[in-house]
Each structure stands twice: as structure tokens, then as C-alpha cells.
Amino acid sequence: MESILEALSFPFIQNALIAGLLVSMASGIIGSLIVVNRMVFLAGGIAHTAYGGIGMAVFFGLPIFLGASVFAVLSALIISIITLKHRERMDTFIGLMWAVGMAVGVVLIDLTSGYKVDFMSYLFGSILAVSQEDIYFMAGLLTTIIIIMTFWYRDILAVSYDSEYAMLRGINVQFFYTLILVLSALTVVVAIKVVGLILVIALLTIPVYIAEKLSNTLYVMMMLSGLFSSIFTFIGLGFAYSYDIASGASIILVSALSLFLFLIINKFR
Amino acid sequence: MSVVIEIKNLSFCYHKQKILEDINLTVEERDFLAIIGPNGGGKSTLLKLILGIHPIKDGSIKTFNEVPKKNLSKIGYVPQNTNVNTDFPITVIEVVLMGHIGEKSPLFGYGKEEKMCALGALARVGMEKFAQKKIGALSGGQRQRVMIARALCAHPKILILDEPTASIDVEGQKQIYTLLQELNYSITIIVVSHDVSVIMQYANKVVHINKKLTYHDTQTKRDKTAHDSNHFCEVEMFTQQKEEK
Questions:
Q1: H-type helices in chain B, by residue range?
Q2: Does a structural domain hold residue B38?
Q3: Which residues of chain A does B133 touch, with a Cβ-Cβ cutoff of 8 Å?
Q4: A–B: how many Cβ contacts below 8 A?
Q5: Which residues constitute the domain of residue B59?
Q6: B209 bridge partner residues
Q7: pLDDT value, residue A119
Q8: Which domain holds residue A242?
């Protein structure tokens, strides 16, 4: 216990906790949207395409967040256009982008002379290395998401629940669909920092799955997801610090274990 | 009575395949129109044309003497599949409130008047007690009534329902049709349906669509076939139709 208290006095731990909280809130809201819109595979595609952006940023010496964000948002826009035209071929296109994005990233990082980036840190996250700028970026994104959700809640709810009806009532369904995808892309990018590329889908789905079972409305689901996500992140970080293990994997295992317990309790309720 | 929908010489192709050919149809105020016909016969396509989802190239559709897109707010629509997305975390009242979107709305959330209106619509379909329930917790028939309430929210002059009783048990089907009959006192109703036997008891106009449109004179048919029971047999009807040809 004392060691945890001592740990809390380190600035990098404080940054990690703030980042964990911000990303949990964002992924709780956006993860809920991804799950109710059945876009999990899409989010996976965007996450892996973002790796191409990381490679590009390293190659050209740009900020990593910027490169990853640009790539992720571009892939979100491409997915949105494809869905409009060839919905039935969606999974093929996403699989393609998924693989090509990763390949571009790997090649560009290989080509960057003298720079051996910590490959693992992007695959499994590096929340303990969060900088002050990262936190500003995360806080900005969370604020944007909350503002958008507050003002467009009913439209986004209608589009997610019954897009055909929303269209008939004169809502620009394509706009909101694209908006959800772009916000997902940006959230995926910040979540990569916390749990890494491989595990980002788990952070966006496990807390959301538990929350869905407990909520009657979408906004309750979003808040509960954010809450669960924060709790899992903090407990995971505690384990990571105490046993000196990878934080991303630790957070996901805590989440998965909680889900498992939840399912058992739910069964015998 | 005034004409609410007028379709003239309408033809429609999709991917170079002719779906509808030379359709002429007039719907008057407070009609209860049933559209029957085989799967892929063009029933849903016709609805989508009336709702202005597909552009019209050949012929014309006028709703309230204007192009369909101008009068979308006067038409309430109840879509076909109400059994999809039942896991969605949304309450009954929120589904009904969806009927208000596209109108002027408060900066965020729902207005007091909108909520009152939604509760009123729920009361009209006898579902006000379920307002705070999760939509997935309802039965198929109850869910369908909620969808009707959602359409009523916008105070439509015409209510269009696509297969409202598919995958609903017999008791639920009867309730839906009785409800539609009540609503028909003030609203024009158009129903696409497979349940020919049921729909014949309620509709005052029946059209059969299989690429082309054929009118059915319901009154004489009802007299001819429903002599000693209320049941109306589809087979009899179609054989009659053949004989007439």
C-alpha cells in the first residue's frame, strides 16, 4: 500500500492516471456507439491502419499523434464512402486496409535510418510514458466528443437505432455515420497510447458489453462504460506497477476477468 | 372525399430490371388501402417511391398534389423489421420521441411538449404503461404498437405500414388491426401485407401488385367468399382472380 502511495507522487504516474481517466471516458462513449452500431470490426480496421500513420510520422519526423490521427481519420472517411457505395463488400475492404496499413507502418519504420522505435510500445501501449502534450490532446478530444454528443444526441441515437427511419425524417444519416467513424478513429488513436494497437478493441468493447447489459438508455450505457473502463484501467495500472508487467496487457486482463465474473454473477442472479 | 395520393403511369426499374410497370392508383382521404402481392412483386418499392426514397423517372406520384419529398412530414411510416436491434439500450419513450426529429428541437434533450406528445401517442396505442421499459423487453406485437406511436407523433395524415404483422402471434395481429381500424377514423391507412385473409376484413380498397397493379373490389369478394365464416382463403381469392382474367 505504501509503495502505491509513494508511486502516486511521481509525475509520470500522475500523468498515467489522468490519461487513463480521459481515455476511459472517451472510449466509454465512443465504444458504446461502436458496439450499438455494430462497427467493432471497422474500429479494428481503423486501429491497424493507424499504424501506417505512426510509421509515416516516424519517417518524416512528425509528431506521432498527428501522423496516426491523419491516417486514422482518412481511413474512417474511406470506409464511410465505401459503405455508401458497396456495403456488401465492406469486410473485404476493411481487411485490406487493416493489412496494408500495418505493412506501410512496418516498412516506413524499417526505412527510417538510425531510428529504432519501440515497436512494442505501439502494439501494447505505453501509458507510463504519456507526456503533457498527450494529455492536452486527450482532453481536447474528450471535450469535443462530449459537446457533439450533447447537442446531437437525439440525431445520433436515431441514426444508430433505426437509420432508415432517421433518413425518412430528413436526418443526414451519412453525415452522422461519418461523424461516428471519425470520432472512433480519433478515440482509437488515443487509446493506442494507453493499451496499444492490439488491445484497443478490447478496451472499446469489454466495458461496453458489461454496461450494455445494465443500461436501459444509450447515455447511461456511455457513462457506465466510461466508469468501468476507468476502474479497469486503474486496477490494471496498479498491477502493472506492482509486478512490473506491461500496463496495456494488464488493463485488458483485468477487464476480461471482470467480464468473466460479471457473466457468472449475471447467470446466477 | 379528397385525393391524398395520386399515382399516374408509374414505371420503375432497378438495375435494369423492371420492378413496376404502368401503375395507376388513387388513394382518397380515410381510405384503408391494402397492398398485397408476392415477394419481389414491387410492394415495398412502391412504398419507397411514395416516401420519396427513390427518384421517380417514369410517370408521376403526387401526395397532397405535390411531389412526395415536399410532404414527408404528413406521412407516418412504420418499417418492416421491428425485431432487429432488440439489444439496443433504448426505452420505449425514446423510440417514440424519435418521431419528432427533423422538426425544430430544443438545443439539447427533448422538450416538454415533445414528451407530452410522445406519451399521448403511446396512450393512443395503449402502451403508455411501458414508456420507461427497454424496447427489447417487449413482445413483437407491443413493439409494433410502439412503432405506430412513433409514426403518430408527427401527426401524420397518412400512415404507411410495411408488413406490420409479420412475425407477430395471432392475438397480437388482431390487436394491431383493431388499432389501425380505430386510427382510420381520422387517418388514411396504407398497409402492405401477406395476411390476405385478415386484411380483407379491414381494408376498403385492396390492390394486388406483381409488377402490374390490379384492383380488387373488396365488397363483392367478401360476399362471395366469406359466406359462412369470417375466414378468407387466399387460394380462393387467387383462383377467382384467374377466372376473372
A1: 43-50, 92-97, 112-124, 140-152, 170-183, 196-202, 218-225, 234-244
A2: yes
A3: 216
A4: 68
A5: 3-84+158-244
A6: B213
A7: 67
A8: 2-268
For residue A155, which residues of chain B lie inside 8 Å, CB to CB?
A: 101
Touching check for A36 and chain B: CB below 8 Å? Answer: yes
A164: nearest CB among B79, B89, B102? B79
Verify whether the Cβ–Cβ distance A168 to B85 is below 8 Å: no
Domain membership flag for residue B129: no
| Residue B164 lies inside a defined structural domain of this protein | yes
- Comparing CB atoms, the residue among A158, A217, A221 nearest residue B101 is A158
Domain assignment of residue B55, yes or no: yes
Q: What is the CATH number of the domain that holds A244?
A: 1.10.3470.10
Instruction: Assess A164–B contact: CB distance below 8 Å, yes or no.
Output: yes
Q: How many domains does chain A have?
A: 1
CATH number of the domain residue B72 falls in: 3.40.50.300
Full pLDDT tens readout for chain B, 245 residues: 688 899 988 888 888 888 888 888 989 888 999 998 888 888 888 888 888 888 888 888 888 888 887 888 888 888 876 667 788 999 999 999 988 876 666 666 788 888 888 999 999 888 989 999 999 898 888 898 899 999 998 889 999 998 888 777 888 888 888 899 999 999 999 998 877 777 778 888 888 888 888 887 665 555 555 444 455 555 555 555 555 54
Residue A75 touches chain B, beta carbons under 8 Å: no
Report CB contact under 8 Å: B134, A216: yes
Q: Kindly report, residue by residue over A128-172, the tens digit of the pLDDT.
A: 888 888 899 999 999 999 999 999 999 999 999 988 888 888 889
Is A5:A242 a contact under the CB 8 Å cutoff? no
- This prediction's pTM: 0.85
ipTM above 0.85, yes or no: no
Q: How far apart are CA A179 and CA A44, in angstroms?
A: 17
Minimal C-alpha gap between B79 and chain A (Å): 8
Please tell me which of A28-32, A76-80, A122-126, B168-172 the model is most confident about, judged by mean pLDDT: A28-32
One DSSP character per residue, B33-89 reads EEEE--TTSSHHHHHHHHTTSSPP-EEEEEETTB-GGGGGGGEEEE-S--STTTTS-
List Cα–Cα distances, A65 to A131, B32, B36, B48, in angstroms: 11, 60, 57, 45
